[in-house]
Every structure is written in structure tokens, then in C-alpha cells.
């Protein structure tokens, strides 16, 4: 997962290959609650691992369910008629799929609970559900604003299971004789919550729920009914207005249950297949194959396929897979504009808004009022991002109309504010396929953790981009100027890969000496042969050679000096070129060394030549070595650095020198934080044209040459 402040996606154009998607969020959290209410132990396979399921699992543990996580499976032993453990304070993050059903279930089970979430959760309405539960006789108080979480459930026990006596005598019986009325036109989660909770009270009598107003998001109710059936609860449905839970209902675990891949998450990859040219996947694969989800899915968002087809996507599928390809030119590509009622696919419909950027004409998405009360006001968030990209957008209470930028040159490089909304982040990533070849910045990419923590990794695994178009920042310069520290910090902040090319020379020198090879021209070929097959891996901050951890061993000054000698051998340098190029992968690379900008990545978009005075560098290296437990003295270090710089600068192949187009930066008088901020500002300027980070430090930069 990318936990950086933002992620910059370079312009992409092709995608091919297979993606595996995380389990459905809607199914995962419903199944968890149903398992918790059931008799017996349920093994849930392919459970989505995400923020929303995490808060649900934590809450279930708190109320007394046994939860045992084993890889992608979770075993849950339900309450099975036992009272939940109380009192309990449950924090439910921003998970509506936990807040609503748990409120209903705990209100009926009895006990004292406080349910709260993040600030946005406290702005998401729950009043209609609370009204319905109060009608029944449950006691629920608002702890903040009326109609919104946080909530306090104070009722002791209002709905004992048939064979359990009421825990507190004198509790008024639940008013179950009359139909329970709930509004269906704000969020279908209120009805889902009641449908999952009321079987707890349907021991002796059947219970009727009536929906007031037109029910939105019906497919989610269909999922609820399908899953209730798997846990032994029969609900008779008359249209979408009246639901009857049979008398004698009792939750029974099905033993084990598989969670389908998430159909809403699939929408991004269906859209990807529809907009990306699709050749060149592994083994010549064409288009995008989505594993774990078929056309017969029980999830409503599978109907996104129909909308994508209407726009031009070519989608085929079987029971557990989908395949998507871009339509033929003039038929399905460019995409066709669409005017569609999105009530049946409220979440996936956001993806259509970004697909509309690639359509001919204006697209209108209607009946999406529920977007206003989701993780953020999604109509406003989508409209803002689309406008930033150059589209014309009209928005209303329950619709959005999108007209793409008229010409290629009307597209703009945008920095998308994701408002802590996973879907905003995921669908705007598709704007990276813009015809203008502009990068897209997605702010706070970790918000995708809500449903798809490895979304960007999955996107990069199928996105195809010629290596020379993957962004590279080169940091070259003499020893101890701070290249490594700067490059690592940039990579961390940008979410880019990091190439410490010096480490490759250090490892080669160490391995050569350990193999008994003197480092001189006479052994050049044998050392090059070693270098060509180094089984080196960089994992977090560790440098591994096979199973050997060389992180510390390669950092001695002696190894540094030998690295300088080994690096003067042309055959060794040639042997390490392919390995260095292999680090250039999405979303980008920061490479640190001596010849990154001159030889290895000569077309890199940003090259920095980092220097500092000899005295500064010697003092920095001295402190660095002492802190790592090596002995050192300044005078020897000065001599070593000079010798190393002289050898690096005068060797015949790839000598140390600034690339023609490198920006020279003397950081003798800067802190590392200042250096990092300055280079980030240059990178921002290169990519997006404006410097928003700290300005240039006067005098710190000299023009090259
Ligand atoms: N601007 C700076 N101010 C103070 N210390 C620095 C600065 N730049 C680097 N250092 C320190 O100098 C040492 C050498 O930096 P390093 O990144 O290893 O250099 P290089 O990779 O160029 O050999 C490290 O301990 C680092 O923390
Ligand atoms: N791209 C590179 C990187 C390092 N090197 C050599 O490898 C040695 C060790 O590199 P390093 O970056 O780890 O060295 P320091 O700058 O940290 O001392 C340098 O002194 C260079 O001689 C090189 O020739 N080319």
C-alpha cells in the first residue's frame, strides 16, 4: 500500500494482464455480522482485508465473539443466543456497513454500547434507522447531533432469543405486531440493518418491515437477502416495499462461506480494459482479465458491465472471471457518451464519471443523490476533480453531467483531492490514460485501504509503459555529499523505487574479495561474471545477497574504497547495466550514484548533481561511520575522499561528472530536509509546472557547465 502524502501517476496508455481483486466489502461485512449472530463457527474465506472489515472484526471481538484470523480466512464463533459483552465502546471508523447493522443488532440484543467513528461518520445520517428502532421500543440516544452518530444504546435487553429469558424484567415488549416502517430513499443500509437484526426477535412471531418512499440501491438489499438465506433466515419479499421475516427464525452458521471478489473494485479494471489499448500482456495476453468475479455475481455492481458495454467496452465472462477489451476504433473507441439512471450501481457509477472523459459528447449520470451522503459529498468531489482535468461539469442534487475536454491540449495535469474517499482515489487514477500524456497526482493514496489496499500495485501490475517513459530522478555526485540520504528520502516521499547503485559496486567488491579475487584488471572478466549474476535484493532498508544480509558489511570505508576500484573496471560496469535498468518500474525511480544521469538513465526527467565542500563531506562521513560503530578519523577520511573522487572522476568509463542537463546543488550549508524540499519542488515543477513546495534557496543552485 502507498502511504505517501500523494502518488504521481505518469501518463499511461496500455494495460494488459490479469488482476486478482480483494473480496467484496458489502459481502464481507454482512457475512461477519451474520456469523457473529449465528449459532456455531463460520469460516469466512477470501474476506476483504480493509479498514472497514478491520473495525467490524474489532467490534465483534469486543462484544464477545471468538475471532480467529488465519491468512485470508477468518473463523468466527457467533453469539448464538448469548447476550453480547457489555458495556462496550465501539469505534467504527468510516464504515457505514459496520455502523448501521451493528446499531440495529446491538439495540435488539440489549446491553450498553457507544458507537462512534471518524468525523465524517458523524456527518452521515442514521436518524431513519434510529427512528425505526425507537418505534420498536429500543432506547438509543444521540451523543452529538440529532440524527447522526455517535450513539448510545442504553436498553438493557429488549429482544431475548426465544429460549433466553429477558435479562431485565420490566423491559417493555418490543412493538412487533405492527409493521416496522423505515425510509428507503436515503440509504438502503437502514433496511439492510433491520433485515439482519430483526430475525433475532422473530422467535415467536413473524415480523413485517415496510419501506417508506422509493427504495434506493435495491441490489444491495438483494445481497442482504441472499446472505440471510445462507444463514438460515427466510425473508418473504413483496416487491421492494414489504419484507416478512418468518416466525421461528434462528441464525445458523453455514459452516464456511466464500466471499466473491468485489464488483465495485472490478469497475476500475473494467474501465481500464475499456480505455487502455490492450496489447502486450504476459504471454501475449490482450486486454484485462479479472479473476474471482463472474457475470453471475450476486453483487449489484456487476451491472456496471452493462454500462461499460453501452459505452463501448467488450466484456466477456464466465462463472469466476471477466475479460475486458477496448472496442474497435469507431465502434467502441473512443467511448460513447451515456445517459443513465445509476440507482442500481451507486458506487461503481463513479467510475463511469471518469470513463466519460474518454467519450464523445456529454454523459449524464442520474439518480445519484446518495453520492452526497457517502464517504464525502461524492458529486461535489467528482465534479471538482473532473473540472481540474479540463472537463466541463454540471452538477445537480442528484445528477452530474460531464463533457470531456474538447481537444487534447485542453486536458490539464491535476492534483486530485480524494477527501478520504477510496473510490475518488481509485477512479481518478484512470485519468492517467489521458491523450495529452499528462501525469496525475492522487492525494492521500492510502485512503484506498478502505476496500482495496493494494489498488495502485494492482494497477501497476497490468499498466504497460515503455521503460523510457517511466519517470526517473537521478542523484549523482561525489562521495558523502548526501546522495543516498536524499535519494532514499525522495523515493519514500514519492512512493518511487530506489536504486542505490553504489551498493551494487560495494557488493561486487565484497563478493570478489570473499571469492579470493584481487581487484585489478587481471581479474576483470571474472569479477564481471560475478556481477552479472548477483542475486541481490533490496528489502525495506536491508541489502540482501541470496539469504545473506550485507546491509552493514558493505558500509565500511574499506569496502567503499574497493567499490571505487571495482567500479573503474569497464567490464564490471557493463555487467551491472541491465540490473540497474531493471529498477525502472512504475510509478517511478530515484537512482543514486555517479553515472545515473550521464550513462544509465541519460534521458531522465530530473538530474541533480549533489556536492558539498570536502570538509563538510569528511565531517558527515566521520559522524556516519562513528554512529555505525566503525572507527574513523577526519584527516584520513579527507585523504580517502579525495583519492576516491579523483579515481571516480578520471576513470576511462563513466567518470564522475555532472550530466549536461543536471542541476548542480551544493548543500554544504543546507540541512537534509532543506535539500529534500528543494529537489521535491524541482520535481513538482518538472511534472506539473508550478512550484508549490518551498522556493529555491538563493545561491544554492548553480547552472551546469
Ligand atoms: N545536508 C546535510 N546535512 C547534514 N548531514 C548530511 C547532509 N547530507 C547528508 N548528510 C549526512 O552525511 C552522511 C553521508 O550521506 P550519504 O547520503 O551516505 O552520502 P552519499 O550517498 O553521497 O555518499 C549521512 O550520515 C547523512 O545523514
Ligand atoms: N553509479 C555508481 C555508483 C557508485 N560507484 C562507485 O562505487 C563507490 C561506492 O559508491 P557509494 O555511492 O556507495 O559511495 P559513497 O558515495 O556512499 O561513498 C563509489 O566511490 C564509486 O566509485 C560508481 O562508480 N558508479
Automatic annotation (TrEMBL):
Binding-site residues, ATP: 477-485
An example Gene Ontology molecular-function term: CMP kinase activity
UniProt cross-references to SUPFAM superfamilies, sorted A to Z: EPT/RTPC-like (SSF55205), P-loop containing nucleoside triphosphate hydrolases (SSF52540)
Binding site residues for 3-phosphoshikimate: 25-26, 30, 187-189, 217, 347, 374
Protein location: Cytoplasm
CC annotations in GO: cytoplasm
Catalytic residues of the enzyme: 347
Enolpyruvate transferase domain span: 16-459
Pathway given in the UniProt record: Metabolic intermediate biosynthesis; chorismate biosynthesis; chorismate from D-erythrose 4-phosphate and phosphoenolpyruvate: step 6/7
Cytidylate kinase domain ranges (all copies): 473-681
GO terms (BP aspect): amino acid biosynthetic process; aromatic amino acid family biosynthetic process; chorismate biosynthetic process; pyrimidine nucleotide metabolic process
UniProt enzyme class: transferase
Family: Belongs to the EPSP synthase family.
HAMAP family the UniProt entry points to: Cytidyl_kinase_type1, EPSP_synth
Subunit structure: Monomer.
PANTHER family with a match to the protein in the record: AROM/DEHYDROQUINATE SYNTHASE, PENTAFUNCTIONAL AROM POLYPEPTIDE
Protein name from the UniProt record: Multifunctional fusion protein
UniProt source species: Verminephrobacter eiseniae (strain EF01-2)
Amino acid at each position: 500500500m502507498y502511504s505517501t502524502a500523494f502518488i504521481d501517476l505518469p501518463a499511461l496508455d496500455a494495460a494488459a494482464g490479469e488482476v486478482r481483486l480483494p473480496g467484496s466489502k458489502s459481502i464481507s461485512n454482512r457475512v461477519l455480522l451474520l456469523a457473529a449472530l449465528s449459532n456455531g463457527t463460520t469460516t469466512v474465506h477470501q474476506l476483504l482485508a480493509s479498514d472497514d472489515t478491520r473495525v467490524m472484526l474489532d467490534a465483534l471481538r469486543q462484544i464477545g465473539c471468538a475471532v480467529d484470523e488465519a491468512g485470508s480466512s477468518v473463523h468466527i464463533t457467533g453469539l448464538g443466543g448469548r447476550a453480547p459483552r457489555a458495556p462496550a465502546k465501539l469505534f467504527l471508523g468510516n464504515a457505514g456497513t459496520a455502523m448501521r447493522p451493528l446499531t440495529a443488532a446491538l439495540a435488539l440484543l440489549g446491553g450498553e454500547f457507544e458507537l462512534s467513528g471518524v468525523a465524517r461518520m458523524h456527518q452521515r445520517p442514521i436518524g431513519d434507522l434510529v427512528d425505526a428502532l425507537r418505534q420498536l421500543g429500543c432506547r438509543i440516544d444521540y451523543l452529538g447531533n440529532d440524527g447522526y452518530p455517535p450513539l448510545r444504546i442504553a436498553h438493557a435487553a429488549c429482544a431475548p432469543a426465544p429460549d433466553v429469558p429477558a435479562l431485565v424484567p420490566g423491559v417493555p415488549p418490543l412493538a412487533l405486531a405492527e409493521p416496522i416502517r423505515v425510509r428507503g430513499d436515503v440509504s438502503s443500509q437502514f433496511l439492510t440493518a433491520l433485515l439482519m437484526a430483526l430475525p433475532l426477535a422473530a422467535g415467536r412471531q413473524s415480523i413485517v418491515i415496510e419501506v417508506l418512499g422509493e427504495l434506493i440501491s435495491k441490489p444491495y438489499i438483494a445481497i442482504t437477502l441472499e446472505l440471510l438465506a445462507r444463514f438460515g433466515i427466510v425473508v418473504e419479499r413483496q416487491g421492494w416495499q414489504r419484507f416478512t421475516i418468518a416466525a421461528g427464525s434462528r441464525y445458523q452458521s453455514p459452516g464456511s462461506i466464500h466471499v466473491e471478489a468485489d464488483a465495485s473494485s472490478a469497475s476500475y479494471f473494467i474501465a481500464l480494459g475499456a480505455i487502455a489499448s490492450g496489447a502486450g500482456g504476459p504471454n501475449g495476453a490482450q486486454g484485462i482479465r479479472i479473476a474471482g468475479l463472474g457475470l453471475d455475481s450476486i453483487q449489484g455492481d456487476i451491472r456496471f458491465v452493462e454500462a461499460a458495454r453501452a459505452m463501448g467496452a467488450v466484456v466477456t465472462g464466465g462463472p469466476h472471471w471477466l475479460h475486458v477489451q477496448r472496442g474497435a476504433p469507431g465502434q467502441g473507441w473512443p467511448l460513447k457518451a451515456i445517459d443513465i439512471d445509476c440507482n442500481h450501481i451507486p458506487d461503481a457509477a463513479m467510475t463511469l464519471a471518469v470513463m466519460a472523459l474518454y467519450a464523445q459528447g456529454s454523459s449524464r449520470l442520474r439518480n445519484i443523490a446518495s453520492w452526497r451522503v457517502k464517504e464525502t459529498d461524492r458529486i461535489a468531489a467528482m465534479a471538482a476533480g473532473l473540472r481540474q482535468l479540463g472537463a466541463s461539469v454540471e452538477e445537480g442534487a442528484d445528477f452530474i453531467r460531464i463533457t470531456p475536454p474538447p481537444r487534447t491540449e485542453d486536458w490539464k495535469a491535476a492534483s486530485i483531492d480524494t477527501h478520504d474517499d477510496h473510490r475518488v482515489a481509485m477512479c481518478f487514477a484512470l485519468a492517467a490514460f489521458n491523450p495529452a500524456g499528462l501525469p496525475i497526482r492522487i492525494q492521500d493514496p492510502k485512503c484506498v485501504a478502505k476496500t482495496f489496499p493494494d489498488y495502485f500495485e494492482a494497477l501497476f501490475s497490468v499498466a504497460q509503459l515503455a521503460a523510457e517513459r517511466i519517470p526517473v530522478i537521478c542523484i549523482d555526485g561525489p562521495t558523502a555529499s548526501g546522495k543516498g540520504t536524499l535519494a532514499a528520502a525522495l523515493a519514500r516521499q514519492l512512493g518511487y523505487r530506489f536504486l542505490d547503485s553504489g551498493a551494487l559496486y560495494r557488493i561486487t567488491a565484497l563478493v570478489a574479495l570473499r571469492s579470493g579475487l584481487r581487484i585489478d584488471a587481471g581479474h576483470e572478466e571474472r569479477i564481471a561474471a560475478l556481477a552479472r549474476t548477483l542475486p541481490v535484493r533490496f528489502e525495506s532498508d536491508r541489502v540482501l545477497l541470496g539469504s545473506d544480509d550485507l546491509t552493514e558489511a558493505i558500509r565500511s570505508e574499506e569496502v567503499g574504497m574497493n567499490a571505487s576500484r571495482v567500479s573503474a573496471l569497464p567490464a564490471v560496469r557493463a555487467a551491472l547495466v541491465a540490473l540497474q535498468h531493471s529498477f525502472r518500474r512504475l510509478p517511478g525511480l530515484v537512482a543514486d550514484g555517479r553515472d545515473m544521469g550521464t550513462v544509465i538513465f541519460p534521458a531522465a526527467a530530473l538530474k541533480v548533481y549533489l556536492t558539498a565542500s570536502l570538509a563538510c563531506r569528511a565531517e558527515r562521513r566521520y559522524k556516519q561511520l562513528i554512529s555505525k560503530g566503525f572507527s574513523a578519523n577526519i584527516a584520513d577520511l579527507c585523504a580517502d575522499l579525495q583519492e576516491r573522487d579523483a579515481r571516480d572522476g578520471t576513470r576511462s568509463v563513466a567518470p564522475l561528472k555532472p550530466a549536461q542537463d543536471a542541476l548542480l546543488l551544493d548543500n554544504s550549508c543546507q540541512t537534509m530536509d532543506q535539500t529534500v524540499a528543494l529537489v521535491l519542488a524541482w520535481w513538482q515543477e518538472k511534472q506539473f509546472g508550478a512550484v508549490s513546495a518551498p522556493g529555491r534557496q538563493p545561491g544554492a543552485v548553480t547552472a551546469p557547465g
